Amino acid sequence: MAVMMQAFYWDAPKLDNKEHEWWNFIAEKVPDLGKAGFDALWLPPVSKAASNTSMGYDPYDYFDLGDLDQKGGVKTWYGNSEELRSLIKKAHDNGMGLYADMVINHNSGADEEEINPLDGEKRWTKFNPKSGRFPRDWNCFHPSRYEQVMIDGENFAGFPHLCHRNPVVYTELFNYARFLIEELGFDGFRFDFVKGFGAWMIGILSKYRYVKNGAEFQPWVVGEYWSGQEDIDEWIEKVNSYTDNQIAAFDFPLRYQLKKVCDEPSYDLRNLTYGESVLMKRPLHAATFVDNHDMGADMIVNDKLMAYSFILVHEGYPSIFWFDYYNNGLARPLTPNGIDALIQVHHANAGGDSNILHCDPDLYIMQRVGWKDENNDQPGLVYVLNNLGDSWSGTSVKTKWANQRFKPVAWDGHDEAHPDERTTDAEGNAEFPAPPRGYCIYVPIS
Question: What angle in degrees, to the nearest 10, is found between the helix axes of 229-239 and 199-207?
């Protein structure tokens, strides 16, 4: 599977002193990210929002990429269209795809208030964007003549919500999706706040037969459904009933489990095995992550590499958070003790099914059995997660490999000692330890 980078965090342009220059800043990092093994970049919303210092989750002019003087300036918080196009080309040249952040439910920054004749309420729903594309009035929002009550989703803050059943809205959102894929060159979509609108809308935008570089193109698609496992499972079932694209969902239940692993030293590791996550129930639909731009004060603060090790050895499509990789210094290139080493293991070894070999409150051991075809040769691995805070821990487990040497290739924890090689016996048994409050990954060697 691939690895994506969430290439931003909240107020990134300001905190990194790259105001209105974020696209250029990412582009500087692209060659190194490609060499590190990243396959795709998830970018923040690219359109002009309610202000030119907005993160983009309050869209105003979908077709202004930072070239028109409106909402406080010309550029978006991230840059302009030329800089965005340059970033997309550079990423593609370095073997990486790009995912666009789609905010298609709520809008902000309207130019005028209007009285909605259906309920007599006055709202900010008159939009006259300078691009001249997708002007909007009250009938483009809820309530409208096409849907008098909002039956498809939940409201977000006080923003007016687009009515997707209005043919004008429906058509313009298709135009916007085509613009991102066919004109700008994006390779997929991340849909924001999918609770706010019907799953059918994502299904049809995903199923559309886009044309890219002269050939039909199918985007990769993931939704942000911030809820528990049952709700996400129901959404996955519904949204995939509209398309055969196999749309994914971010695994919020797993993320909250991993936060407890990292921030609560007594957390029972058996909770990771009970199927209460997208990963455990629907691994092919799981987009796994450790933190993102929305977590704020709820971010993981301790032993975060334990969480990254977990998502990078299991199934699912793991997302690495820019702030952790760069600002928190967890990349740790050219060492076995950081995200870079975990990405290398992910690509080289993390293939085939996952089998849990042992799990108790403080020790979790899993094997990936490996996978080989004409395009891949991933021989598998043994992963050990140790929750004890004061000692190395391991136990003898029966692996699929008999008389096989293993070497440790990635590890971290509260002890800087180097783990030793291991060799299984004729029945595949060996003891595999990991450092305190840490992990160790062992791979078979010839």
Answer: 50
Reading the block at residue 416, the tokens are: 């800087």
The tokens for 272 are 């990771």
CA distance 20 to 16: 11
Q: Which CATH number fits domain 354-445: 2.60.40.1180, 3.30.420.10, 3.40.50.720, 3.40.640.10?
A: 2.60.40.1180
| Phi and psi based region of residue 21 (left: phi greater than 0; alpha: psi -120 to 50; beta: remaining) | alpha
- Dihedral of alpha carbons 77, 82, 85, 87, sign: negative
Q: List the structure tokens of 88.
A: 């997309």
- CA-based nearest residue to 87, from 39, 55, 43: 43
Tokens 């990429």, located at residue:
65
Measured distance CA(199)–CA(365) in Å, rounded: 37
pTM, two decimals, is 0.96
**Which CATH number among 3.30.1490.100, 3.20.20.80, 2.160.20.10, 3.30.530.20 corresponds to the domain 4-250?**
3.20.20.80
65 CA to centre of own chain:
23
Given this model, what pLDDT does residue 243 score? 87
Start and end residues for every CATH 3.20.20.80 domain found in the chain: 4-250
Name the DSSP class of 387. -
Helix (H) or strand (E) holding 31: helix 22-36
- Give ranges for CATH 2.60.40.1180 in the chain: 354-445
pLDDT grade, residue 153 (50/70/90)? low
Rg value, the chain, Cα: 23
Give the β-pairing of 4-6 and 40-42.
Answer: parallel
Which residue's entry shows tokens 């990210």? 33
pLDDT over threshold 80, residue 151: no
